[in-house]
């Protein structure tokens, strides 16, 4: 998909912006077209040194120059940041507004930024930094195909994209894929600790865990087998894996994941009300 490059401004230079901007530049998006603002200078300096994008401590300055504004602050700060943009950025309704914040609904942004905005909500994740992100997207009915293609291409540059039907689905995607890297890191850390407890030093334990995670993920992507069948391929009858899997199943791993995802969805819904 070829799209016309646009000037894109990120408001907030935290974890997620660092990942997306890093991934975009690495995938060939011109750093000349990327602007980032943040109140403290440390993160801006990092972006400037590594990626040579434009940086500023002034949200209004970067937002005014851009065709696309990406809101990348914590949900708690969104109202305040939007208020400032609404008051001080000329022609806001001509710009495409993208938000990556969890929870907050498009309807709320219309209250914050004015009823005439056009908006896409994206739910990315931090592996965008290494080009392996998973981003969910949903647009309001004012966004045209050109806007959708532009944002799809930008986020395809940092991984995979999935348009979802509505904001309820985005909450679920966020609870699985947005938060998901944290679940996988938690699980990987637990395996690392298990190996360390049996005598491996932490570095070697980490190396074996992360390479195994990578191999399993790549196999899952490459294979047409179900995840269940891939698991069975490893689980020799009467063998060692069966004993390990028995432990996970006895602890009801499916139930644990279902509870974790539900809890995260619920928090997205709470944030929609709170912020
Ligand atoms: N982290 C993740 O995995 C994901 C996060 N998200 C969403 O992305 C958004 C950002 O999250 P994340 O990057 O983790 O958060 P961070 O806290 O890492 O980043 C937020 C950034 O916003 C900056 N900031 C604070 N106040 C302002 C302001 N008034 N104007 C401009 N910038 C400001 C902060 O600067 P300073 O530190 O200097 O105060 C900080 O650098 C959230 O809404 C979250 O829901 C979505 C998907 C995944
Ligand atoms: O924890 C959060 O609220 C954000 C959204 C998904 C990942 N981080």
UniProtKB/TrEMBL annotation:
Record keyword NADP present: yes
Pyrroline-5-carboxylate reductase catalytic N-terminal domain location, by residue? 7-103
Under the heading Pfam families, the entry gives: F420_oxidored, P5CR_dimer
Keyword tags: Amino-acid biosynthesis, Cytoplasm, NADP, Oxidoreductase, Proline biosynthesis
One term of GO molecular function: pyrroline-5-carboxylate reductase activity
> For binding NADP(+), which residues are annotated in this chain's numbering?
11-16, 72-75
> How is this protein annotated for GO cellular component?
cytoplasm
Q: Summarize where NADPH binds, as residue positions.
A: 59
> Where is the protein found, in the record's own terms?
Cytoplasm
According to the entry, every stretch annotated as the Pyrroline-5-carboxylate reductase dimerisation domain falls at 167-271
Q: Which EC numbers does the record give?
A: 1.5.1.2
The main location class comes to cytoplasm
User: Pathway it belongs to?
Assistant: Amino-acid biosynthesis; L-proline biosynthesis; L-proline from L-glutamate 5-semialdehyde: step 1/1
Record keywords: Coiled coil included? no
Any one of the GO BP annotations: L-proline biosynthetic process
Give the reaction(s) catalysed. L-proline + NADP(+) = (S)-1-pyrroline-5-carboxylate + NADPH + 2 H(+); L-proline + NAD(+) = (S)-1-pyrroline-5-carboxylate + NADH + 2 H(+)
**Which top-rank group of organisms is this from?**
Bacteria
Which family is this protein grouped under? Belongs to the pyrroline-5-carboxylate reductase family.
Function as written in the Swiss-Prot or TrEMBL entry: Catalyzes the reduction of 1-pyrroline-5-carboxylate (PCA) to L-proline.
Q: What is this protein called?
A: Pyrroline-5-carboxylate reductase
Origin organism is Pseudidiomarina maritima
Q: Give the gene that encodes this protein.
A: proC
